[in-house]
What does this fold into?
Amino acid sequence: MDIIPNEVNKLAGFFKNLPGIGSRQSSRLAFYVTHYSEKNLKEIAKLIWDISCKTKICDNCFFVFESENKKDFLCPICNDTSRNHKMICVVEGDTDLITIEKTGKYKGEYHILGGLLSNIDEAKENKLTIKQLVLKVRKAIQNKDPIDEIILALNPTSEGYLTTLYLKKLLEPCGVKITQIGVGIPYGGEIEFADPETIKEAMKRRE
It folds into this structure.
């Protein structure tokens, strides 16, 4: 007999789909939420609803940005005419973009993949924005305004290296300069948790 309430099971299933959340942790979170007061639950529900209403995904770099204007399709970074839009820094997720942006040293634009490739899940490529990146580079060439440099700033993990190699294979025929961030972040580490000085040094020593 399953003694866990159906709604708790459903919520645990939702949490389990979040990155880094396993079965045990998802169950703990679901049960923890059930003990929230009605006021707190309403506040959480409102925050989630506001996210759906007030945020968008940038059409160009896929970064989440806040806007209530239906005509806004680009984030503030992609809309900034002072930035170098012929330089693209490719990152895994939004938090990596934020970490690099906090250094104040990078003045190009970004491209968020939305994850990394995996040897286990071959279908994962379809969930990423790899095709959009390649299309962006090819379109720039067709418009006779090619991209000057693509910086691959992916986490130094097995999946990060796999994704880097795959992107190089796709982009090198386009004739675009491709670089990688330099040393500084240890194998298995994550850009999101690196300190600003490490990120600045890694970007400076890209090759």
About this structure: The chain is about 45% helix and 15% strand. Helices lie at 6-16, 23-34, 38-54, 76-79, 94-102, 130-142, 158-171, 196-204. The chain has a mean pLDDT of 88.
